[in-house]
Amino acid sequence: MTAPPLREIRKVRGAAARRSGRRAEAWAAAWLMLKGYRVLGFRLATRAGEIDILAQRGRVLIVVEVKSRTSLEAALEAVSFEQRMRLRRAGALAAATRAGLKGMAVRLDLLAMTPGRLPRHVPDAWPDDGRAWA
């Protein structure tokens, strides 16, 4: 019996990762709603990049990055500086172009999903990135 080609293995792993990511995003959205956030959308594609969850609380537009990792530290480290800048640009674009969101402050949050634990929401997860993007 021969092993399946590497391409097929990657295809199966990729599909499993996408399903797992969608599940994590659904749990994350439910968690945010329980905390009083208004979820505006999932997996929103913009010219600047994809937003996992776009939420609102008061006059703040929140771009939520969802990461499933073994620890909060691993989830924080999984989002590179370049990815954070893309997310900030995508949030600013959403705030500028979507009806009812113009002029809102944009914040970047992390929602970390770890096995066997409640989700961990980190508001303004990367404040030290600077605010030159705003």
Keyphrases for this structure?
single chain; 134 residues; alpha+beta; Trna Endonuclease, Chain: A, domain 1; five-stranded mixed beta sheet; 3 helices; 5 strands; 39% helix; globular
Summarize the structure.
By secondary structure, this protein is α+β, with helices and mostly antiparallel strands.
Structure description:
The chain is 39% helix and 28% strand. The chain has three helices and five strands. The chain has a five-stranded mixed beta sheet, sandwiched between helices. A hairpin with a 6-residue loop joins strand 4 (105-113) and strand 5. It is globular, with a radius of gyration of 16 Å. The model has no long low-confidence stretch (mean pLDDT 86). Belongs to the UPF0102 family.
**Mean residue pLDDT:** 86
Task: Give the class from helix and strand content and strand pairing.
Answer: alpha+beta
Strand/helix succession: HEEEHHEE
Strand content: 25-35%
CATH secondary-structure class: Alpha Beta
Largest sheet: 5 strands, mixed
What is the CATH third-level topology name?
A: Trna Endonuclease, Chain: A, domain 1
Percent of residues in helical segments? 25-40%
The number of domains is 1
CA(first)-CA(last) distance: 58 Å
Radius of gyration computed on alpha carbons: 16 Å
Number of helices, counting only DSSP H or I runs of 4 residues or more: 3
Strand line-up of the largest beta sheet? 1-2-3-4-5
Oligomer description: single chain
CATH architecture: 3-Layer(aba) Sandwich
Number of strands: 5
pLDDT under 50 segments (min length 5)? none
Gross morphology: globular
